[in-house]
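Feature request, filed as a ticket because there's no other form

It would be nice if the structure record came with a short human-readable summary line next to the tokens. Right now we just get the raw output. Example of a typical job, pasted below so the devs can see what we mean:
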Amino acid sequence: HFRYCFPFGRPEGALKATLSLLERVLMKDIATPIPAEEVKKVVRKCLEKAALINYTRLTEYAKIEETMNQATPARKLEEVLHLAELCIEVLQQNEEHHSEAFAWWPELLAE
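Raw output as currently delivered:
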């Protein structure tokens, strides 16, 4: 839910603080640091869920799926292009916000 839990105009440093809290929650004890791969694994799972939620909400917003059955091929193409533009906008906004929080963001997002 990254996009919806941290709405646009997100507080400065909120994601970094959340990741720091995640690391502390995942730690077995205070003396043993959590491996970066374990944090990546949790974030990857969250991103997969967020991608599905974002896609679902964008298709609802764009009203793609309900109009696809009766639309002409030209209209279908228009709808898909509109959805692609919305997806690109979300990706750009997420990139701007999340890339400052951790260096491996682009790699994880590409997966």
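Something like this underneath would help us a lot:
The chain has one domain: 2-110.
Residues 36-62 form the longest helix (27 residues).
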